[in-house]
């Protein structure tokens, strides 16, 4: 991510590693380092500098699960899935959020450039429950989904270009509606940790009941 946001800038410590990975700085190497030094000084002016650095080292060595950090264009990962939207030049992109909270993120990308864009056309997004193997989706019916930026009070025009994102859940069934266009349905993937994969039992007889039965008219 540093190579995408701040190409050619090498972090000098763990604090800069974090900053360069989440924020784009302007200017050459000297200007970026000066900006970083200024930010760090402002943060640590009331604390012992070494103590502050040790705090950041400890924080960066702690495992955490962020939600909403977007992939850079062209980034490949099995959990990053992109599907084109018919009759448009855009695609829906799903990318991973917190695994523990079963959060998946969605945004729109330009098919030609691969760059993320904010809501490129009028639409409404609805999300519902899942199958029996998604106990975290313990509700019936569906609900309208707003972007995380709108939830936090930002007006649509205030969202920085390409930063809009929607929080869904693993296994959630979703519908995108557009005026005068067919509905688009999709189901969010379910991530399964290798250690949690069910073990195939060899001493069990499985009865193959149908999953769905279509009634006669």
Describe the structure concisely.
This protein has 217 residues and is an alpha+beta fold.
Structure write-up:
It is built from 5 helices and 9 strands, in the order H-H-H-H-E-E-E-E-E-E-H-E-E-E. With about 220 residues, it is α+β, with helices and mostly antiparallel strands. It has 2 domains: about 60 residues, no CATH class; about 110 residues, no CATH class. The strands form 2 sheets. Strands 1, 2, 3, 4 and 7 form a 5-stranded antiparallel sheet that branches. The chain has a 4-stranded antiparallel sheet with strand order 6-5-8-9, with no helix packed on it. The chain starts with a helix and ends in a 30-residue tail after the last strand. The model has no long low-confidence stretch (mean pLDDT about 85).
Count of discrete structural domains? 2
Strand content: 15-25%
The description of the largest β-sheet is: 5 strands, antiparallel
Average pLDDT value?
83
List low-pLDDT spans. Answer: none
What is the CA-atom radius of gyration, in angstroms?
22 Å
What spatial form do the alpha-carbon principal axes imply?
globular
Measured between the Cα atoms of the first and last residue, the distance is 56 Å
Helix content: 10-25%
Number of strands: 9
Helices and strands: which structural class? alpha+beta
**DSSP helix count?**
5
Order of helices and strands: HHHHEEEEEEHEEE
């Amino acid at each position: 991510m540093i190579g995408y946001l701040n190409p050619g800038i090498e972090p000098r410590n763990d604090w800069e590693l974090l900053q360069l990975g989440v924020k784009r700085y302007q200017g050459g190497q000297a200007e970026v380092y000066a900006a970083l030094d200024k930010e760090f000084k402002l943060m640590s002016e009331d604390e012992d500098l070494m103590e502050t650095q040790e705090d950041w080292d400890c924080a960066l060595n702690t495992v955490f699960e962020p939600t909403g950090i977007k992939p850079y264009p062209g980034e490949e990962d099995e959990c990053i899935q992109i599907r084109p939207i018919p009759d448009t030049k855009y695609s829906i992109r799903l990318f991973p959020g917190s695994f523990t909270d079963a959060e998946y993120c969605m945004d729109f990308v330009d098919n030609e450039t691969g760059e993320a864009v904010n809501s490129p056309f009028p639409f409404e997004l609805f999300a519902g429950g899942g199958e029996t193997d998604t106990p975290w989706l313990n509700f019936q019916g569906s609900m309208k989904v707003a972007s995380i930026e709108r939830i936090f009070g930002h007006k649509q025009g205030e969202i920085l270009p390409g930063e809009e994102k929607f929080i869904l859940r693993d296994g959630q069934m979703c519908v995108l509606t557009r005026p005068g266009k067919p509905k688009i349905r999709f189901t969010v993937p379910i991530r399964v940790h290798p250690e949690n994969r069910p073990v195939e039992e060899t001493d069990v007889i499985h009865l193959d009941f149908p999953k769905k039965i279509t009634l006669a008219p």
